[in-house]
Each structure stands twice: as structure tokens, then as C-alpha cells.
Amino acid sequence: xxxxxxxxxxxxxxxxxxxxxxxxxxxxxxxxxxxxxxxxxxxxxxxxxxxxxxxxxxxxxxxxxxxxxxxxxxxxxxxxxxxxxxxxxxxxxxxxxxxxxxxxxxxxxxxxxxxxxxxxxxxxxxxxxxxxxxxxxxxxxxxxxxxxxxxxxxxxxxxxxxxxxxxxxxxxxxxxxxxxxxxxxxxxxxxxxxxxxxxxxxxxxxxxxxxxxxxxxxxxxxxxxxxxxxxxxxxxxxxxxxxxxxxxxxxxxxxxxxxxxxxxxxxxxxxxxxxxxxxxxxxxxxxxxxxxxxxxxxxxxxxxxxxxxxxxxxxxxxxxxxxxxxxxxxxxxxxxxxxxxxxxxxxxxxxxxxxxxxxxxxxxxxxxxxxxxxxxxxxxxxxxxxxxxxxxxxxxxxxxxxxxxxxxxxxxxxxxxxxxxxxxxxxxxxxxxxxxxxxxxxxxxxxxxxxxxxx
Length: 455
Ligand code: PMP
Ligand code: GLN
Description:
Its EC number is 2.6.1.64, 2.6.1.7, 4.4.1.13. The chain has helices spanning 9-18, 27-30, 46-56, 73-84, 100-114, 129-141, 158-164, 194-199, 223-236, 275-278, 293-304, 312-327, 335-356, 392-404, 417-420, 435-449, and strands at 60-61, 124-127, 147-152, 168-173, 175-176, 185-186, 190-191, 205-211, 239-243, 269-274, 287-290, 360-363, 369-373, 406-407, 409-410, 426-430. By secondary structure, it is an alpha/beta fold. The chain has two domains: 9-69 and 335-449, Aspartate Aminotransferase, domain 1, CATH 3.90.1150.10; 73-327, 3-Layer(aba) Sandwich (Aspartate Aminotransferase, domain 2), CATH 3.40.640. Strand 8, helix 9 (223-236) and strand 9 form a beta-alpha-beta unit. Residues 10-28 have low confidence and may be disordered. Bound molecules: 4'-deoxy-4'-aminopyridoxal-5'-phosphate and glutamine. 4'-deoxy-4'-aminopyridoxal-5'-phosphate binds next to helix 6.
């Protein structure tokens, strides 16, 4: 677009509109533009809304999930080395389905973890973050009229992605057990009812989405829970899209079990991972899908006709970083061994601070999130205007961002519409933050909790 020198993009758009340019921003034109049905009802996005709010009000930001500490030196150096390469190929297009050095090491790395040999060319697809891997799963494998089972609470994009593929999401909640005298509950207390789960499998079910460790709850599904899900997948001949982006972030001796490694599951599972989460570099947007060739081939079709491939230098850097980690897998010096130890301390720091002010945390077994119950929070909160449209937790977080300068994410955003009102008393915090940031959040909460009503 040719822009007048000195004009911002917004002003330029306004100028063009005034001059009668046929822009879609023009009201007259808007009515003539009919959107595609696939974008109907999926236009709202929690991240777009709350990232903007957190930035507008200059908050202590425990909202969107990303570390505010740097990736480790060996990871940053891998990127610098990659882009410093004189080998021009690093700066050009690479293989569509994954840069050869990256698919090679991903196959080696996860082959070891899954206990099976992976073919780099047919069992690995490199994507623009785990987001694109998820999108390719739904677009490549879900058809009009297919049902996809989603476990609530769920990472928000599953629902719109299923709908955009023409599928129907079918929800099953994790139900919290009562605390039975304990002051603090754990994400492990949130469980599926096996009968309720089995009842969700119908003739139209195509797939189930599993997310362990789970965002936003932090639940790490136990082997027994995964065996239940796997058994149902096999019995009903269903696919499993297993989002394992937080696979390294497990605490208190919990173990991450890969559902694809359970009997009968490899052939029906797409396992999704993220270099962003693995190496604390969410902005790199490198992810992958692992699975059998006859499933991945359909993901490749979506990928080659949309994104084609992701940035070569970023893939090269991730390949180098994974190579380093492969050499020291499970050893104390491994970043993937050290990171959860550091994060567990941060989790406990936030748990203590929230408990002290009556925001009851549900202790997460994994991820870098925790959810906290705000219903007994010991601080004055004004009567937030009732709304049939907007759940209480969302109004609470917006008020907190604007008036207290502390950002979180309302947990109702991770629920389907009928359930939102039943889960509107929890808010999610991200604790992958420098201790100074966590302390700043603690100060805000403490001062707030010591205020008298009306202050
Ligand atoms: N799945 C889950 C559960 C997530 O929390 C996220 C958030 N980043 C993603 C997928 C997307 O990961 P990426 O940033 O690699 O696209
Ligand atoms: N996965 C991150 C979270 O849950 C970020 C998601 C996003 O920005 N779209 O906070």
C-alpha cells in the first residue's frame, strides 16, 4: 500500500476512507461484505482481548503464558550461530515439512522417549508453533458432522478450530473432588467420571483432544487416567490429538506419560509439542506433530497449502538446542531437568502469597499456570456490575487490571458457553516469571488485602 510520508497506518486508512477508497473499513461497504461461514461465532479471542488490556494498563503481568526470563544461553547462542551462518541455505526456503536437521533430531529425541523408531521424513511435521500443528490436525482429519471430545477446562483454541473444520465439539468436564478437610487442593483432585466420559463416545466421534499437562489447571494425567482414555479410543476406534506442549513442566515427582506410548495408541495419536515451551522462547513459534504416516500425510496437505514451512533459521536453532539436550538427556545439567525445579519454586512462591490473601490456589502438578479461587479473597472489591453476558471472573480480572495493575486470565475463558457460569470464580496466573515480578504481584495482593472496604 502506498502511504503518504509521515502518516501512521491508522491515519492513512482513515484518509483513504474519507477519499472514498473502497476499503472494507467503510460502513457502506461492510454490509456488502459477507464473511465465510467458518468464521461465524469464532471472532472473539481471549488473548487478543487480555494481552491488549494488560499492555494498556501497564500491569504486573501474570496473564498470558510466557516466561519473562530469557531462554538459556545455549539456546540463544544456537539462534545467533544459526543466523550468523554464511551458508546461504540457512537463510532460504527449506524442506516444507521440516528442516532436515530438525526433523532428524526430533525423530531421534522423541523416538527415545516414545520407545519406538521414528522416521524423520514421515513421522515428524514441523509447524509454526503447536498452534499450527493443532490447526492441521483439525483441518486434515475432522470433517463436517464429526464430533470431537474436548476435556474441560481446555486451551481455548480447540473449540474454534473444531468448528472451523466443520466439526462439533462435545465437552466433558474434569470435576473437582471435595477438599475433605485439606486447606489446599491439587489439580490431581480434578478428575473425569469414567461413565460420563464413555457416554460421550458416539458413532460420530472422530477424535478426543487430550492436553496433559493441562492448561489452565496444571493437571498431569496419571497413567491410569490415560489408560482409561486410551482404552476408549481403541474400543471406539477414535483418534487422539495429544497436546503435550508442557511435557517438561511437571512437579513433585509426577511423571509425564505420553499417551502414544500406550498399547494400541501410536497408530491413532498425533502428539504435539512446542519448542517455545521447551526452551522458554515462545516467540520463536516452532512446533511439531509426531505420528504415523497415514495420519500425518493429511496434516502435511493442510500445511503445504497454507503455511508451507516455518522460518529456516528458527528451525536450525531449535535443532541445535535439541541436539545439545539429547546429549545430556535426563542428566542433572540438562535444561529440561533444571527448568521444572526452578519453576516449582516459583509455583510455591505464588501459592504462598495467594494462600495468605485468601485466593485459594489449586496446586498444579504441571505447566506454568495455576488457578485460584477468588470467592473468599480477603480484600475489598466493588460490586462489579452484573452481566448476563460476561462471567464474574472476567469482570473481576478486568477490574483488577485497571485498578490494581495486576493481570491474570479469567478461567471461564477455558470453558464452553454452558459451563462458563459454573466456573466463574477462578482466575489463572502464570508463574514463569522473574522472582521480582512474582514479588511485585505479591505486594499488590498484600496491600489490597489490607485495605478496608471503601478505601
Ligand atoms: N497448546 C497449549 C495447551 C498451549 O498452552 C499453547 C500456548 N502457547 C499452545 C498449544 C500453542 O503453542 P505455540 O506457542 O507453540 O504455538
Ligand atoms: N499458551 C499461552 C497461554 O495459555 C499463550 C496463548 C496465546 O497467546 N494465544 O497463556
